[in-house]
Amino acid sequence: MRKGPIIITAAVALFFVISWIIKSGGAPEGSSSYDAIAEGFWLTFAAFLTLAILSFLYKDNPFYKFAEHLYVGVSAAYWMSLGFWTTLVANLFPRISMTLSEWFQVEFISYQYHFWVPPILGVLLLMRLSPKGGWLSRWALAFIVGTTAGLNLPRFLRSDFIEQISSTMLPILVNWQGFGDFFTNFSLSASGQFVSIVSNFLVVLGVLCGIIYFFFSKEHKGAFGAASRFGIWVLMVTFGASFGYTVMGRISLLVGRLTFLLDDWLGIISG
Predict the structure, then answer these.
(1) What's the pTM value of the predicted model, to 2 decimals?
(2) Can you give the residue range of the structural domain that contains 5?
(3) Can you tell me the distance from the alpha carbon of 46 to that of 265, in angstroms, rounded to the nearest whole number?
């Protein structure tokens, strides 16, 4: 067996114990020894998991795999427990069984027999684990997929189609009362009439040119081609802004973890 992994593991364990001891001694005054030891452990463990995840930037390693599997396992357990208490205990049991309601100390509402449908479908889904009864899970899956699609279709039709179209139908001349009023109250503020007119005009023009780019029944030449090329620029700016927003969100998470390491753990920077 190679000694390299053993030495690295021993060094990490030693560093963990040293950090644990130091952080346990730096607990706030008035806290008990048990609280100080527990707080020092969790603080050191959080720093270890952060560094273990960041170690993937070097290469895949057992520390990263441990942190990854721990995160996935804890997340799955948390959401499963949350779903059990908020869905089964809070909503299902008070409507199908007085005994279960008393057992979990929740108020019994009333017998509603149609609430037996979800647990039956859930049992049918678990039949997928049976080699012979796996076909029963298809009925439950088909019902869930069909019902979800039917319920979400109007919602997505309104939010992703109707709302977007209505948001594009903007007035070009915002609060227009003539050129005299326009030049008299001319302002470059973000809420001013001039900026609102330019903003609405660019939105409408960008949407129309973006649609023209996807119109392939006519060759993209002349004015039609120029509008298509402008639509490409609009799409690229939109995709770039979306990508930049995503990157900045990830960077904010990185800054949060680095702040934790340098402030809460190492104490190098002040909070």
Answers:
(1) 0.72
(2) 1-59
(3) 9
